[in-house]
Write a structure and sequence with these properties.
Blueprint: H1 14-17, H2 20-29, H3 32-54, H4 86-122, H5 124-138, H6 142-153, H7 157-183, H8 187-194, H9 199-207, H10 212-235, H11 247-254, H12 263-290
Helix pairs in contact: 2-12, 3-4, 3-12, 4-5, 4-7, 4-10, 4-12, 5-7, 6-7, 7-10, 10-11, 10-12, 11-12
C-alpha cells in the first residue's frame, strides 16, 4: 500500500472542493434565463444610478407646443400631455421604483427575519403569538392592506414604501421560522447549547447564516412584487405624488390618452414589465442554484 508523502495531497474534484456559495454561482451561471434576468436588473440599476446624467431633458421641462408628440428623433419615447420628454421621465423613474423595491424588501427581511427567528427558536407562547399575528396579516389581500396603511399614514412615496414593507413581513417571517424549526434540532446546535453558548450567539453565528439561502431567493422575487405594488399604489394616487416620475403615476396620468397617444402608457408599462421580469428570472435562477433538491 502506498502512502501520501508530505508534498502530496489527495485529488479532490474542484466542484466538491468549492464552497457552497461558489457552487451556487457555478449553478447560476449555467442558467441562460437567470443570466438574462441578472443583465436586465443590472441594466436598470445602472440606469437608476447614472440616469440623471444621461437623460436628454429634465423631468419637469415642459413645452406645451410639443404635447403628446409621437416618438421621433427629437423625443425617442414621445412626450406627455404637458410636453415633457417621456424617455427622461422613464429613466428618472427607475431610481424611484428600485429604491422602493430594495428598501421595502430590506425592511421586510429585517423585521420578518427577527420575528421568525424568535418564534422558531423559542417556540411555545412566543411562537403562538407571532404566528397568529402573521396569520391575521395574511388573511387580508396584500394590496388592500397596503391601501389601508397608506390611507392611515397619508399618500406619499415614503408611506407607500412603509406599507409595502409591512405587508411582506409575514412572508419572510414564516419562511425563516420554518427554517429555524428544522435547524435548531441539528447536532451542532444541540452541542452549542450543551457547552453553554448564549442564545444570541447561537442565533447570529449558527442559525441565521444557515437560514439565509431561502431568504435571498424570496427577497429577489419580493423586489419584483414590491415594484408592482408601488406602481399600483402610484396608479391609485396613494404613492408618489406629482410631479415625481414614478412609473405607476405615469400610467395613471396617461390613461386618458390611451387611444390618442398610446406611447404615454406603453413605455412606462414596458419599464415595469422588464424590471419585474428581470427580478423574477434572477430569483428563479437563484432558487435553482441554492436549493440542494434542484442539483443533480
Amino acid at each position: 500500500m502506498t502512502q501520501l508523502t508530505t508534498n502530496q495531497t489527495p485529488d479532490i474534484p474542484e466542484e466538491k472542493a468549492a464552497g457552497p456559495w461558489r457552487e451556487a454561482w457555478t449553478g447560476f451561471k449555467k442558467s441562460k434565463a437567470a443570466l438574462a434576468g441578472a443583465f436586465i436588473v443590472l441594466f436598470f440599476v445602472a440606469l437608476a444610478i447614472v440616469g440623471p446624467l444621461i437623460a436628454p431633458e429634465g423631468i419637469n421641462d415642459q413645452d406645451v407646443t410639443e404635447r403628446l408628440m409621437a416618438p421621433s428623433s427629437a423625443h425617442w419615447f414621445g412626450t406627455d400631455d404637458f410636453g415633457r420628454d417621456i424617455l427622461s421621465r422613464v429613466i428618472h423613474g427607475a431610481r424611484i421604483s428600485l429604491t422602493v423595491g430594495f428598501f421595502s424588501v430590506i425592511g421586510s427581511v429585517v423585521v420578518g427575519s427577527a420575528l421568525g427567528i424568535i418564534a422558531g427558536y423559542y417556540g411555545r407562547w412566543v411562537d403562538t403569538i407571532i404566528s397568529r399575528l402573521f396569520d391575521i396579516m395574511l388573511a387580508f389581500p396584500s394590496i388592500l392592506l397596503a391601501i389601508a396603511i397608506v390611507s392611515v399614514l397619508g399618500p406619499s412615496l415614503r408611506n407607500a414604501l412603509i406599507a409595502i414593507a409591512v405587508i411582506n413581513v409575514p412572508n419572510f417571517g414564516r419562511l425563516i421560522r420554518s427554517k429555524v424549526l428544522s435547524i435548531k434540532q441539528d447536532e451542532y446546535i444541540m452541542a452549542a447549547k450543551g457547552i453553554g453558548m448564549k442564545d444570541a450567539r447561537i442565533l447570529f453565528s449558527h442559525i441565521l447564516p444557515n437560514s439565509m439561502a431561502p431568504v435571498i431567493v424570496q427577497g429577489t422575487l419580493a423586489v419584483a412584487t414590491a415594484i408592482l405594488e408601488a406602481a399600483a399604489l402610484g396608479f391609485l394616487g396613494l404613492g408618489a405624488q406629482a410631479p415625481a416620475p414614478e412609473w405607476g403615476k405615469m400610467l395613471a396620468d396617461a390613461r386618458n390618452y390611451l387611444r390618442d397617444a398610446p406611447w404615454t402608457m406603453i413605455f412606462p408599462g414596458l419599464a415595469i414589465m422588464l424590471t419585474v421580469l428581470g427580478f423574477n428570472l434572477m430569483g428563479d435562477g437563484l432558487r435553482d442554484a441554492l436549493d440542494p433538491r434542484m442539483k443533480n
